[in-house]
Protein: tRNA-(MS[2]IO[6]A)-hydroxylase (MiaE)-like
Organism: Klenkia marina
Amino acid sequence: MSALNTVEPAVVDLLGVLAYAELTAFDRLAEDARLAPTLEGHAALARMAAAEIGHHQRLCDRLRELDVEPARAMAPFVRPLDAFHDSTRASTWLEGLVKAYVGDGLATDFYREVAAFLPEPDRTLVLETLADSGHAQFAVREVRAAIAADRRVGGRLALWARRLVGEALTQSQAVIAERDGLADLLITGTGDLNGIADLLTRLTTAHGERMSALGLAG
Amino acid sequence: MSALNTVEPAVVDLLGVLAYAELTAFDRLAEDARLAPTLEGHAALARMAAAEIGHHQRLCDRLRELDVEPARAMAPFVRPLDAFHDSTRASTWLEGLVKAYVGDGLATDFYREVAAFLPEPDRTLVLETLADSGHAQFAVREVRAAIAADRRVGGRLALWARRLVGEALTQSQAVIAERDGLADLLITGTGDLNGIADLLTRLTTAHGERMSALGLAG
């Protein structure tokens, strides 16, 4: 019983935060789609948004299977995730793409690390909903082309990416500080402080690779 | 050759107008989702939006098969459809639902009538993309509940629905006046003025049934 008691709230928390993250990702991608300079770009971002809502649906279905009302599981994460998006609203098409690629990439890596500590079937479910939906190549191509056309764009977008990461850290610290289950899962899963340091190193390395892929200084 | 020449522009026009209609429907449903009073409502409208983008994708794939760049096929319809949405922007959750149910219902009926005159495989493709995606029941339930709670809501929403229909007529007349292929298809397909009158009667009847389903005076 004790194992169940410590794991279950964290499972519900992780499914809940992910479900709300997918819903807000939908909103934001749908909003940013309208910043697209072409109908193709508009449709491309709209398709990414649609993929997020499919994931949201699967997570909510699983929560209902666990007899948890999805809205209740999402509730603790509404404020921090809304705060993140409100403080990092893209004002240009390229900012939106960087946010989709760099911001979602970092969040996805983090959720994937945490998911590794989950029991099945939730581990597989979460990993599947985090699988790349082909957004990456599109964003990389568009951002690189824009930087090639005007090198000053790269400097501005690198600053923007740094702001995204800063806000993401602020909000994720707030979430972990409030959700004991998630914090326990993270500490138990990683083993010790060295484990957490390793996790942070992996996140930082992958983030640096994404920045390089876009042609941005980290 | 002459049959091909008269039909093909109309096929491209119909696929193009539908593809752009689906893209704007996505935008608008995604925008209206954020007016939802609950996370469930928010997710429900987001799912409807996602269904539209799937249809958009299929229509664009077909246009590419016909060697037509989707953006080119959509271009003539960007202005009238944007004008329609700009002039009928929902300011409340219920207005958004009425627009999704009554406005999209009328448009869908009209496109379905025109699709009946298309050669295969486009007839089937268009009819499939127009198939109801389960939006209807959700909108009906929410609107009826709101009217039951406050009868004045019904009067305001009935006026709103009338405005939607007026704007839709204005914009569709503008489209047909400019697209000879679509006008030809409609006239050839219906046969004569009686045929067009019958078509209008069918549209009006179905519209009235949707208004009744919502509990609104036509």
About this structure: The domain at 2-214 of chain B is CATH 1.20.1260.10 (Ferritin). Confidence is low (pLDDT under 50) at residues 1-7 of chain B. The interface with chain A takes residues 20, 23, 26-27, 30-31, 33-34, 38-40, 42-43, 46-47, 49-50, 53-54, 56-57, 60, 70-71, 74, 78 of chain B (CB under 8 Å). The radius of gyration of chain B is 17 Å.
